[in-house]
Amino acid sequence: MISGNIRNPNGIAESKSGMISKLGYALLYAVLAAVAALQLFPLVWLLFFSLKNNQEVFNLPPLSLPMNPRWENYAKVWSAGNIDVYFLNSVWITITATLLTVILGSLVTFAVTRMKWKGSSFVLGLFMVAMMIPVHSTLIPLFSLFSKVGLTDHPLSLILSYIAFNMPITIMILLGFYYALPKEVEEAAIIDGCSVNRMFVQIVFPMTSSVIATTAIINMIYNWNEFIFVNTFISSDAYKTLTVGVQNFIGQYTTDWGAIGATLMISILPILIMFLFLSNRIVEGIAAGSVKG
Amino acid sequence: MFNKKRAMLLLSVCLVLVVSGCGANSNEGTGGTNGEPAENGDKVTINFMHLWPEGVSAGQNKIVNQIITEYQDEHPNVAIKQEVLDNEQYKNKLKVLSASNKLPDVGVTWAAGFLQPYVEGQLFTPVDDLLSGELKDKFVAGTTEAYAIDGKTYALPLEFNIAPIYYNKSIFEKYKLEIPQTYEQLKAVVKTLSDNGVAPIALGNKDRWTGSLWYMYLADRMAGQPALSSAISGAGSFKEEGLLKAAAEVQSLVDSQAFVKGFNGLSNEEAKSEFLNGKAAMYMMGTWELPNFTTNEDIPQDFRDSVGFFKFPTVEGGKGDINSWVGGPGVGLFVGENSKVKAESKAFVEYFVTKWGEQSVTGAGVIPATKVDASNMDLPQLYIDLFNEMNQASSITLFADVQMQANAAETHLNMIQALFGKATTPEKFSEEHDTAIASGK
Amino acid sequence: MDKVLSNKKIIALYVLPSLLLILAIVYIPIVLTAYYGLNEWNGIGAMTFVGLDNYMALFKDATFWNSAWHSLLLALFSGLSLMLYLVVAMVLAARIKGAQLFRKIYLIPMLLSSVAIAQLWLKIYHPTNGVLNTLLESIGIANPPAWLAESSIVLFALFIPILWQYAGFYILIYYAALKNIPASLEEAAKIDGANALQIAWKIKLPLAMEVVKVTIVLAVVGSLKYFDLIFVMTDGGPSGSSEVMASYMYHEAFRAYDFGYGSAIGFFLLVICLAVTWVIRKLTATKDTIQYS
């Protein structure tokens, strides 16, 4: 990978600096590959970690292969009850919250950046302030709120919280992209008699597909890994999510680290697949949109 | 509060919008009802929140489910609904639930300082009636008292612990070391070990209460148990000469490399593994660790065989007694004052405590707060020895951070870490303690 | 056209659902936090109204200012590290072979939950058998420091995993922003004889500027209320040398049972975030928003 297939992307290979630039690219690839190896290290570490018992986790060097891999950690995790329920809950709660956040966030961002109305910047400000509160300050007020409307121990409490708390950051990210959208396309659309709704759905939404994929990935990761709200609002096993599964192995005086590793390993797989899938959607968004528009 | 009402209105509007906007998504999980115990006929549900998850097999955790199953079999009209959280999350949730007055029917609590705000807020119900009933005289002296405030007992203890110094016999043999009887001898042991490149004492002081144990013992041996107790209660002062000397002695232990490298950044779990892996020679910890040194199959047999313990040695010229221990009851069970099934919950707690006492000795290898006759049980020698020590104890001083009220306990723990890290002086250490305790929070 | 784009009904339809949700789920806690801050309350018993006492105490609380300083340092480092992330994103967005693969690998660590990341870095920093110290000892450094136990270095030792944890997040956003730049612009510049650096500096950077501004705010606000890894790895210790505002808030409210004071910290943290954001917006404001022509 380092030497073989270097292709000069800028078409200046023909110039006199050809040799230097070739060397430069070799160097670049060496650095890229080294960093890539470093970035893969956590995943490999986690795999090894999940195959050890406590003694090995603490005693052996972190990257050592476990002597006799303890696959029973995985069996333990799976049989410790409810992991399948947690898993399904994680999936549908994450997907629902992510979809809603991205759609609602896009609508708000569109209205704030592309439409003309008084108070748009004030409303935007309201959304921005909403990301400044530390999560632990919200627990007691939110719990009493949810318990008054009968939503404690109900998945809706999680979905609503996830949407509300991720909305500001989602809008912020969308904002930077919406500002850069060419106005001409919309102007043309409106002159053609296109309604705002149609314009949003058929022109703007596709044009922002790459940032939508980006925010979807970010939302997904946040929702998938969240556990403070789950612990606080949910008490029935039927509605808990995978992050809580880790707690199955934290005892009063002893913690089963190997099983925790296995839980973490199981829980990273679905999100890894989703990530790889969504990540392919981040392509030349505007170009794709413009063609349609 | 006006804000709250108006916001409630807003929330309901939101809910309608969200639900109507995406009905398909939100219908799947809404089958069950929530919150209140469902009372179908005379069927009673007791919500039980605790911190013994099913997944950890070594230890007490199996017993809980066993007791619950048995209880439900014996009482077909009762269903126990469990909610399990880990220690940290458990404490947080208890707090959040208290603020909204939604405590579970039965839950786990700690003694003294932890309990007090809940009692003052009238969230726990007194369980004195249980103590005069079937459980009369069943508890080891000094255990239920830790849960009593103004003459009423608000929880029933499950465990009882003391903290000895465990040591690795094979390391001691290798360097021809004897069990220290005096503090000077302990220091000599420390010196020999550290000169030979062996970490003398495993200590994970990121958790802070671990370092507190060392300070407590030095204070007990130097100033005597009464002086320490009165300083903690606020009647005396931490500026008492012996207590000041104890704080200074902590720092001189640190200077003599007594503790593992980086102890102030290590968790108890990490430090424990240094001892379990034979890298550190000594480890001071509660008797709850006994299973790791006796029956836990995950730990190599050679290691388990080479673990012994000794009492914290006496200090020359000190006022302490070698049979004076630091320890006390661990967690206990409370019943919520606002529980709708108070009577049933109390009955369950009574049953639980009794069964726990019977089963935790053999099942989990821990020492319960209820009296047990260990003579005809087949128990590891280490367990029996410590059990006997406990019965001969001249006094057992409750862990300082448990005794103190929450705010003072935080100050104590922070100052302990600072003292060990030499970020404070013994004088400042004492002063901060007195101020925090005097503030009454 | 303006008429179409200022249709009140559509604006309401786009903005109100999200706004109401935010007001209920985020603003109720914000208002209540401010209110709790005016009370002496242990979170359990009755509240006593004490006016501004908690806030006054906060101004005199050295521990708080210490933690605020640590949070500001983190914000500064996060802000600076954005430059590095931008460079990485530019390299990955350049049309070199294998960029797709590298990008995916680079972003994998961001999928890990804080629980996993904290465990990983605890194993790296372990004073005796950690990866880092084993490495240092093998190259002949006799007594490497106990990274998480020494007051003078612990904060910086923590910054590294924190910055690393969020690297993927920003690289992802930048990557999407760069991919959003129409390829035609780059082609045109190439024809004019611009080299890769010139294209990056003169074309890509200005066009991604709106996104960069947004990420500065996100990074700074995120840092100011940062909690996760610090809580697990050092719990603010040793003796407060890695305490940040959010962990101090947590310690006061949930450990010391001083929920009134904790709420005051939480609300003040929000005010600081607001002030800093305002300053950033002022500093980065430009009159003319860049438009693609």
Automatic annotation (TrEMBL), chain A:
Superkingdom of the source species: Bacteria
Listed InterPro entries: MetI-like, MetI-like_sf
A Pfam family matched in the record: BPD_transp_1
Membrane topology: Multi-pass membrane protein
Compartment list: Cell membrane
GO terms classed as biological process: transmembrane transport
CDD domains: TM_PBP2
GO cellular component, one term: plasma membrane
Transmembrane segments: 26-48, 86-110, 122-146, 158-180, 200-222, 257-278
Domain ABC transmembrane type-1: 87-278
Keywords: Cell membrane, Membrane, Transmembrane, Transmembrane helix, Transport
Family membership: Belongs to the binding-protein-dependent transport system permease family.
This protein's name: Raffinose/stachyose/melibiose transport system permease protein
Organism: Paenibacillus endophyticus
TrEMBL record, chain B:
Gene3D superfamilies recorded: Periplasmic binding protein-like II
One Pfam family named in its UniProt record: SBP_bac_1
Alphabetical list of InterPro entries matching this protein: Bact_solute-bd_prot1 (IPR050490), SBP (IPR006059)
Record's keyword terms, sorted: Signal
Superkingdom of origin: Bacteria
Signal peptide (from-to): 1-24
PROSITE patterns: PROKAR_LIPOPROTEIN
PANTHER family assigned to the protein according to its UniProt record, in alphabetical order: ARABINOSE-BINDING PROTEIN-RELATED (PTHR43649), BLR3389 PROTEIN (PTHR43649:SF14)
Name of this chain's protein: Raffinose/stachyose/melibiose transport system substrate-binding protein
Source taxonomy: Bacteria, Bacillati, Bacillota, Bacilli, Bacillales
Automatic annotation (TrEMBL), chain C:
One Pfam family here: BPD_transp_1
Keyword set includes Membrane: yes
GO CC annotation terms, alphabetical: plasma membrane
Superkingdom of the organism of origin: Bacteria
SUPFAM superfamilies referenced in this protein's UniProt entry, alphabetically: MetI-like
InterPro entries, per the entry: MetI-like, MetI-like_sf, UgpAE/MalFG_permease
PROSITE patterns, sorted: ABC_TM1 (PS50928)
Primary localisation category: membrane
Subcellular location: Cell membrane
Record field: transmembrane: 12-38, 68-93, 105-122, 153-177, 211-233, 259-280
GO biological process: one example: transmembrane transport
Membrane topology: Multi-pass membrane protein
Keywords: Cell membrane, Membrane, Transmembrane, Transmembrane helix, Transport
Domain ABC transmembrane type-1 span(s) in chain numbering: 68-280
Protein family membership: Belongs to the binding-protein-dependent transport system permease family.
Name of this protein: Raffinose/stachyose/melibiose transport system permease protein
Species whose genome carries this gene: Paenibacillus endophyticus
